């Protein structure tokens, strides 16, 4: 039984529930903005497992966005990977090869926060720095609704998977999300 009811509203009607880069991206993407809803949540319940249990959202409806640092020589490239909460991103194989890197790993928390302008545990694919690849698992792209971070820990976004797949820099990859 959920501990709290989720009240969703159009995201741009509640800019205080969005990180600044997320609000700016939604304002700059007028076709996307009407598809995105936001709901305030308890920031202590932002982590996926706690969020799903508290708010009655199924893990297969929830998507995680992780920032990856891919290195080749002295050059580091950052990318976002979006996978369903029931899976984990195949960073060491698929992502590494796709990005043409010698080594790929989860970006350090401080780097992910600083570069994205978002809070750790709330990072979302909307509003990431220009030029970052946004790698979307095919299962996320096919989801009727995906729940992702809002850039802050105090809210979540609801939007169709097709909207995530249509973000600037998005590339849909089959097999990006692998079983945990």
Mind explaining what this structure looks like?
This protein has 180 residues and is α+β, with helices and mostly antiparallel strands. It has a single domain, classed as YbaK protein. Helix content is 23%, strand content 29%. The chain has helices at 20-28, 48-55, 91-98, 109-116, 138-141, 161-165; strands spanning 9-10, 37-40, 63-72, 75-84, 87-89, 103-106, 134-137, 146-149, 155-159, 170-173, 177-179. The strands form three sheets. A five-stranded mixed beta sheet has the order 6-3-4-7-10. A four-stranded antiparallel beta sheet has the order 1-2-9-8. A two-stranded antiparallel sheet has the order 5-11. Strand 3 (63-72) and strand 4 form a beta hairpin. The longest helix has 9 residues, at 20-28. The chain starts with 8 loop residues before the first strand and ends with a strand. The mean pLDDT is 96.
Which features characterize this protein?
180 residues, alpha+beta, YbaK protein, 5-stranded mixed β-sheet, 4-stranded antiparallel β-sheet, globular, YbaK/aminoacyl-tRNA synthetase-associated domain-containing protein, YbaK/aa-tRNA-synt-asso_dom_sf, YbaK/aa-tRNA-synth-assoc-dom
């Amino acid at each position: 039984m959920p501990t709290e009811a989720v009240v969703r509203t159009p995201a741009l009607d509640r800019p205080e529930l969005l990180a600044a880069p997320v609000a700016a991206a939604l304002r700059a993407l007028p076709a996307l903005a009407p598809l995105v809803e936001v709901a305030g949540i308890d920031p202590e319940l932002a982590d996926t497992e706690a969020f799903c249990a508290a708010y009655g959202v199924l893990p297969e409806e929830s998507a995680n966005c992780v920032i990856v640092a891919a290195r080749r020589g002295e050059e580091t490239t950052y990318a976002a990977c979006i996978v369903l909460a029931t899976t984990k991103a195949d960073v060491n194989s698929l992502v590494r090869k796709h990005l043409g890197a010698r080594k790929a790993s989860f970006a350090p928390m401080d780097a992910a926060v600083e570069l994205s302008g978002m809070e750790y545990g709330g990072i979302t694919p909307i509003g990431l720095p220009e030029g970052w690849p946004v790698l979307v698992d095919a299962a996320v792209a096919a989801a009727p609704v995906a729940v992702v971070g809002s850039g802050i820990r105090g809210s979540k976004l609801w939007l169709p998977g097709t909207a995530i797949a249509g973000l600037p820099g998005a590339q849909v990859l089959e097999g990006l999300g692998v079983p945990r």
